[in-house]
What we know:
The mean pLDDT is about 90. The chain has helices at about 70-80, 120-130, 145-155, 190-200, 205-210, 265-280, 295-305, and strands spanning about 10-20, 25-35, 40-45, 50-55, 55-60, 85-90, 95-100, 110, 140-145, 160, 165-170, 180-185, 215-225, 235-240, 250-255, 285-290, 305-315. The relative contact order is 0.14. The strands form 3 sheets. Strands 8, 9, 10, 11, 12, 13, 14, 15, 16 and 17 form a 10-stranded mixed sheet that branches. It has a 5-stranded antiparallel sheet with strand order 4-3-2-1-5, with no helix packed on it. It has 7 helices and 17 strands. It has 3 domains: about 5-60, SH3 type barrels; about 70-165, no CATH class; about 170-310, 3-Layer(aba) Sandwich (Aminopeptidase). With about 325 residues, the chain is of the alpha+beta class. The longest helix is centred in the last third of the chain and has 15 residues, at about 265-280. It comes from Dactylosporangium aurantiacum. One of its GO terms (molecular function) is acyltransferase activity, transferring groups other than amino-acyl groups. This is GNAT family N-acetyltransferase.
Amino acid sequence: MLGPQHVGSRVVVRRIVGHRGDRPVYSDILGRLVEAAETHLTVHARDGDVRVPTAEIHRAKPVPDRRRLTPTESLEVAAAAGWPAGERERLGDWLLRATGGWTMRGNSALVVGDPDLPLPAAVDAVTRWYQDRGLPPSMSVPLPLFHRVDAELDRRGWTPMPLTLVMTARLADLTAAADERVTLDTAPSPAWLASVAGRKGALPAAAVRVLTGVPQVRFASLRQATPHGAEGPLLATGRGCVADPEGRWLGLSLIGTEEHVRRQGLARRVIAALVAWGAEVGASDVYLQVEERNTGAVALYERLGLTTHHVYVTRRLLPPG
């Protein structure tokens, strides 16, 4: 039984909440112990203080403070910082994200650490959070680290989206030719946004807020050379940001070229410019996220020297039919 010496500790209390036939029904309360009296315990849980009479306590014990995040989880947190959702809320360590439906990264719960709830209750809480916002409940699950979460979602019928690779490299190991045609801007130009929209679909206002929502960010543009220095048409784009608190990670996204100039090494040159900028601001490593089925892009990144650090699957609870 917990006593005054445990006040302030993280605890779990299994409470008897009723009976089904001759068997008790339990509910778990996880939080900080704020009071330990002879007649009751008071636990500060996610929804406030819960007072549990001693007679209703089946079991109560301290639990360890939060463990340190693994390298996979730390990288996922860095990547989330580089793609800041319009609305964010914590469920324990899990990060709930909503951005009006624009991109899976901006509209899925990121599974890292501990949700401070039993897994079934945590999934229920995620489901309600997205349904309250008119969005399909979605969760991004790093694998194989959180295979239990993925198995629970699979059991409930959540649909898996295409597998995503998280690829990384040391900046010092990435080499590509510089190109004076590549310019780096602190905000996306109308032409940059139009080029990305042409490949990815229309960009709502929420998209621009995500793309510009970090202090250290650059938008790369590679234009066709023209006589007399006139501004030529835009051929390739990319975005780079350094958003994690340690300033370690350069995140690359929206690397792309116009269809008529593909396979000419332009994406390499955009990446080279962003890598050089990342090194200038103190980053030491680079990451990017790419769908496994995008074999052409995966092959390009592998040729540049990136390797798969881990994978994640996003699962969605889609309406019947």
